[in-house]
Write a structure and sequence with these properties.
By secondary structure, the chain is an all-alpha fold. The protein is built from seven helices and no strands. It starts with a helix and ends with a helix.
């Protein structure tokens, strides 16, 4: 049994050696087998050294960084301040410049139609009045677009 096992180990080693010889011969002609090649068809020297079993391969394996070493080199992440009930309602005053922070606040309020929403929600709006208001707003938006197109067309004609 042991002799049979030793024979099979010798056979597999011989087969591996013959394949390695064929690969070396093939690579000397500019061809490298695809199973051992990267996208360019050439083995990376680093990987070739690591898996060749040579003494330099053993030393290169010992110089590899562990994940702990990689993490220790990285700078810690800067997290934003925690979210609180007032964080979305706050604007930072940078360098004591209150005017620019106030302008930013007003611009944000106007972009999000906060004042208009507050004004419409002060009192109950009957469904029929709401329909009339929404129809009127839609008509104004469409009219504005149509006037803009007509003005642009008139300007192109004049030029």
């Amino acid at each position: 049994m042991q002799a049979r096992l030793q024979q099979s180990v010798k056979d597999s080693n011989a087969a591996f050696a013959s394949r390695a010889t064929k690969n070396r011969e093939a690579s000397s002609f500019g061809f490298t087998p695809r199973a051992n090649a990267n996208s360019r068809g050439v083995l990376d020297a680093d990987w070739r050294d690591r898996f060749s079993g040579s003494e330099s391969a053993k030393s290169s394996l010992s110089t590899l960084e562990t994940p702990e070493q990689k993490w220790s080199r990285l700078a810690p992440l800067q997290y934003p301040p925690p979210v609180t009930p007032n964080s979305a309602r706050s604007f930072a005053v940078k360098g004591g410049n209150v005017a620019s922070a106030y302008r930013l606040l007003n611009r944000t309020l106007n972009e999000n139609n906060v004042r208009r929403e507050l004004r419409t929600q002060e009192r109950f709006e009957r469904p029929s009045d709401k329909r009339c208001r929404l129809d009127s707003e839609r008509h104004r938006r469409r009219f504005k677009v149509a006037v803009g197109k007509a003005v642009g067309q008139a300007i192109r004609i004049v030029k």
